[in-house]
Design goal:
The structure is a single chain. By secondary structure, this protein is α/β, with parallel strands linked by helices. It has four domains: about 1-80, Roll (Ubiquitin-like (UB roll)), CATH 3.10.20; about 90-225, Nucleotidyltransferase, domain 5 (2-Layer Sandwich); about 240-285 and about 390-510, ATPase, nucleotide binding domain (Nucleotidyltransferase, domain 5, 2-Layer Sandwich); about 295-385, no CATH class. About 30% of the residues lie in helices and about 25% in strands. The strands form five sheets. A six-stranded mixed β-sheet has the order 8-7-6-9-11-10, with helices on both faces. A six-stranded mixed β-sheet has the order 22-21-12-13-14-23, with helices on both faces. A hairpin with a 6-residue loop joins β1 and β2. The radius of gyration is 26 Å and the shape is elongated.
């Protein structure tokens, strides 16, 4: 008899007891019941579990709680407990971000979230971006140090999450890791140098299930770590995780998913086909265009409005604290409002005569005063220079060009897109109207755009909650066609046309109405 969630990874089995008429081996008895419970053709049992099996089955009167995992068709028994053990099988979902790492502790018996933690990626001390880390990884012991930093950071925060939830690290049986290709390689201690050099070849695309011990994590002795597959050097498991979370791969209609982080990663398709690409449009859109640029957090400007009559700036900060910087969504709002109000021209140049009290000349070029020193959290004025604005406009041009290139490659129009998913922290704060106004995303009805939040974490958590997730991930991976933009000449041609506000072809953005000439 079996008692288990309909689609989970655990099951409680009540086995028939051995007799002269039924003298199957203990392992065979358990395997047969597991294969029926999980609809599996076979189940592997680790030698360490086999050694404990006879004693435990008899101690528990042949009733046992089991945790199994399907590694691309290979089912494995990873843990057993007494049927009355109140401590759950637990798992950790990890969004392995370049800047920020988020983990979620999941009850594998129920699929419920137990707790969640986030921390800055400790590899930042080596370099803020992936490129710097990859170069450092090529130095003596560099890769080992990068690997040790992230593994130790995960270990510390997993243990703290367990403490928060009232369980032990030995109660963790599965970790699902979702990250870009480079971060996954650094976590697995694999040399990433080939990722950034033509022809852009990673060490592995589909690593699958590994033991936690082999990766340096101290959890349950049999714990496994499943790293979501990457489809290319710049298209990682984080986006495959996002596809799984969004359900895009199950849609009959065409949809698009964009995740802006270190790169802008894009997938277009439906249940029949998926095309993906990625490009360097991320850092500026994350707020990294100027000294006042910051990732979203308390006191960071996330919304800007400019009154068309008075020219007054209406600034909103996260948690309504005094402003100390501006994040990507705030920067996009700012540029959109500047353009619509006539403070920026179509080339993205500041227009001093439109606001002489805010736009002024310096030795380094024109600057715009966003917040005066008397109103800022730092006691210093928050300003942005023309060079910073130029950087953001290049990033928005790259974003739009990525979207335009992938749709033209497939042979569809933007109007054919039923849903446009925007993932990540960027997606949580972005206002489609502002992004449309600067020509960063297509001019579609605003209800087309749907924010997913942290879809990388959401997809990793889905893997822990549903046994059907692995086959979905494999189907997504197998269906993806990856378009390499690094060698795409059409991309460069279209990029030049997109470096205007909103675009050199005004007909692409009919809804954008500038308030002044």
């Amino acid at each position: 008899m079996t008692d288990s969630p309909a689609n989970g990874w655990t099951a409680t089995l009540h086995l028939s007891k051995p007799s002269l008429a039924d003298n199957r081996a203990d392992a065979d008895r358990l395997k047969n019941a597991l294969m029926e419970a999980f609809v599996a053709e076979s189940i592997d049992i680790d030698i360490a579990l086999l050694r404990r099996l006879p004693t435990l089955l008899r101690q528990w009167d042949y009733a046992v709680r089991c945790f199994c995992f399907n590694d691309y068709g290979r089912w494995r028994l990873l843990g057993i407990k007494a049927p009355d053990d109140s401590v759950p099988f637990a798992g950790i979902a990890v969004d392995l971000g370049t800047t920020r790492v988020v983990l979620r502790l999941i009850n594998l018996d129920t699929g419920e979230k137990m707790t969640e933690r986030a921390f800055d990626n400790p590899q930042i001390e080596i370099g803020p971006d992936i490129l710097a880390r990859i170069h450092f990884g090529g130095t003596e012991n560099g890769l080992q140090r990068l690997n040790r930093l992230i593994v130790e950071g995960l270990q510390t925060n997993i243990e703290q999450a367990c403490l928060d939830a009232g369980i032990s690290k030995e109660d963790i049986y599965l970790v699902a890791v979702s990250g870009n290709t480079s971060m996954a390689h650094l976590f697995m201690n694999l040399p990433p140098a080939g990722i950034i050099r033509e022809p852009y070849i990673p060490v592995v695309n589909r690593p699958g299930l590994m033991t936690a011990n082999a990766l340096g994590l101290e959890l349950h002795p049999n714990a496994g770590v499943f790293v979501l597959p990457n489809a290319g050097s710049y298209f990682g498991g984080d986006l495959i995780s996002g596809i799984l979370y969004s359900g895009l791969h199950e849609n009959g209609e065409i949809a698009m998913l964009v995740d802006v982080g270190t790169n802008a990663e894009v997938v277009l398709g439906n249940r029949d086909w998926l095309v993906a690409c990625a490009g360097a449009a991320g850092p500026a859109l994350e707020g990294g265009v100027s000294p006042v640029g910051m990732t979203a957090g308390p006191g960071v400007i996330d919304q800007v409005k400019i009154d068309p009559e008075s020219g007054r700036f209406d600034i909103h900060t996260i948690s309504d604290q005094a402003p100390k910087g501006i994040c990507g969504s705030g920067m996009i709002d700012l540029v959109a409002q500047l353009f619509l109000s006539g403070l920026l021209d179509v080339r993205g140049r500041l227009v001093p005569e439109a606001a002489p009290e805010r736009i002024y000349e310096t030795d380094d070029g024109r600057r715009l005063l966003i917040v005066g020193a008397d109103a800022s959290a730092t006691g210093e004025a928050l300003t942005i220079g023309q060079a910073d604005l130029d950087s953001l406009i290049r990033s928005k041009a790259a974003m739009y060009t990525i979207l335009e290139t992938i749709t033209r490659y497939v042979g569809v129009e933007f109007a054919d897109i039923s849903t446009f998913y925007v993932a990540g922290t960027f997606g949580s704060f972005i206002r489609p109207r502002s992004a449309i106004s600067i020509g960063m995303i297509p001019d579609l009805p605003e209800n087309t755009y749907q924010s997913l939040g942290n879809s990388s974490l959401g997809g990793a958590a889905r893997l822990l909650q549903s046994r059907s997730a692995v086959s979905s991930i494999d189907r997504i991976y197998q269906n993806i066609t990856y378009l390499e933009l690094n060698v795409n000449q059409e991309f460069m041609n279209r990029f030049s046309a997109a470096k205007f506000l909103p675009h050199t072809e005004a007909s692409h953005f009919p809804s954008v109405k500038r308030r002044v000439n």
